[in-house]
Amino acid sequence: MALLCIFALRFSVIEEKIQDIVWHFLTSITYSRVVCAINIYTGPFEDDPHEHEILLGRKVEPSEMRRRRDLSLKETWMKRKATRNSMTGSKFAGVYVREAYRVSNEEIRLVYLENQDNSINLKAEVPTLGWQPVEWSCFNSSCFDILFCSMATRFGSIRLPLTAPHSPYLHLTTELNDEFTVVPVKDVRLHAPHSYLHTLGVCLQPIFFFTDWTIVIQFFESWLAQGASKFYFYLHSYTWQTKKVLDFYKQSLGDDLELIDWSDLPVHSRDRGIYEKDPNSRVFRHGATAFMHDCMLRARSTVKFIANTDLDDLPVSSNLNISKILNLVSKRHPRAAQFKADWILSHQPVVHFDMHSVYRNEPVDETHQHTTIEMFDNANLYFLHLRRFERHLLNPPVVEYNNSFDHSLLMKLNTKMLDQFLKRIEATQFGETSLSPWALEARQTIRDLEQCRREAFGTTLDDVNEMCQQSSAGCEGMLGAGIHFLKAPQTWVNVAHKAFFNSYVERSKRFTLF
C-alpha cells in the first residue's frame, strides 16, 4: 500500500476569520512529469467468487540514497545487525497489536509491529481448536524494514473453522508467554450479494504534531469535490485549532467521517525518547505501512475504492469525478488489481515541491491472477503534491520543468471547492470561530519537524549513520514553539508483555455450629 502524491493549491487567511478562508493558486508554479505512479489496488471484483477490495496509492522514483541502499539491503542488514544490536541494545522484545479484522468466515487478519529480528511467534485462541499459531508474512520480500527503522510491519492471519461464530474479541499471546491479551475484532466480511455504501473513500496517514489546520479544510473539500464520500482520519497529535476543524467536519459528515486514534507504542517513561530503548524511535513515521493496511482492512466491506494519502496530496480528475473514472476503467479491466497514473512534480520559486518515498501494497494471492493497468500520459487522472520544505535546501537537484501546464482544470476545481465550503459553513458556529493565533508557531513547528527528519538525536541521517527517520520519539524534544498538543490515548497493546497477574481463588470453608 502506498501514499498518494498530490497538491497545487493552498489557503490564505484574511482577517483571521474562518469565513474569510479563500483558495488561491500559486501563479508561478511550473511542473515536471517524473517517473512515478499512482497504484489503485483492487481485489477481485463483484463478479469474482472471491472477495473484493481496492487500494489507491502511488509508487515513486527512489532517491539516490535509497537506490544505493536497496542494492543490497538485506545483505547489509544481516552483516551489521549483530554489531549494531550489541552496541546499542536496539533489539526490542515487544509485539504490538491494535485491532483485528474478520475478513471472511474462515479468516481473521491483523497488522502488528515487532522488531525485524524477532523470532517469537504469536498464538491465537481459536474456537474448538484451542491455541493455534498465527500465520504471518512481511510487506516486502526481504522482511526487513525501511530507512533503518527496525520495528517492522507484519501481517497476521488466523484460520477459523467454518462454523465459528463471530466474536468481537480475540485472545492473543506469544509462544513464550503464559498470559493472553484481549484484542478487539471488527467484522468486515463481504456477504453475497454485496453492495458497497461508498464508491470512493480516503484514508489519511496519522497526523503528528500537526498545526496547519487550514490544510485539513483543503483536504476534505478537494476530495469531496471529486466524489469521495467516506473518510478515515487517523490522529496522533494535533492542536486545539485542528480539533475544532475536525469536530466541524465530523458534525457535517456524520458517520462518513471516522476519527481514529493512532498512538505511540507503549513505553516506560524512563525510556521515552531514548534511541536505544524506545521502540517508537525505530518506527518509520508512526508505522505508515501498518496504518495503510489497517485502513484498507477497516474499509474493506464499506468502500469500493480506497485512497491512502497525506494531507498535502491532491488528486486531479478531468471530469472532477474520480469515482466515475475508476468505475469506467475497472469495467474495461475487470481483472485489474491496480491502476497506475502519472504523478506530476511541481516547483515554485520560493518553495520546492517533491515527493515522498512510498512502499509496497498488500500482497495479492497469485491465484487471483490480477493485473496492473498503466495509465501514464492519461489526462483523465493525475496527482500533484506539495511539500512546504525542500529536503535538499542547499543543493536542490536539477529538474527540467514543464512550463506548458494547463491550469484551467485546477481553477475549475478551486471554484467548486470554494463554493461547497462556503455553503458548508453558512450559518454555523464554526463559521464565526476565531482560530488565531497560530501561523508563527505553526511555521516554527514545521521547521523543527523538517529538521528532525534529517537530524534527530544529534545525528544526521545519511548513508553512514543509518539512523531511523524520526517522527514522535525523536522529534518531540526538538519542538521549540511551545505549542500544547492533544494526543491520542494509548491504542496499542504489547502481546509479548512478561508481567503475570495474580489469580485469586475463592475457597469454601466449613463452619461447625455448636
UniProtKB/TrEMBL annotation:
It is an enzyme of class 2 (transferase). Keywords: Glycosyltransferase, Membrane, Transferase, Transmembrane, Transmembrane helix. It is a single-pass membrane protein. GO terms for molecular function: glycosyltransferase activity. GO terms for cellular component: cytoplasm; membrane. It is found in: Membrane. Its EC number is 2.4.1.-. InterPro entries: Glyco_transf_92 (IPR008166). Belongs to the glycosyltransferase 92 family. This is Glycosyltransferase family 92 protein.
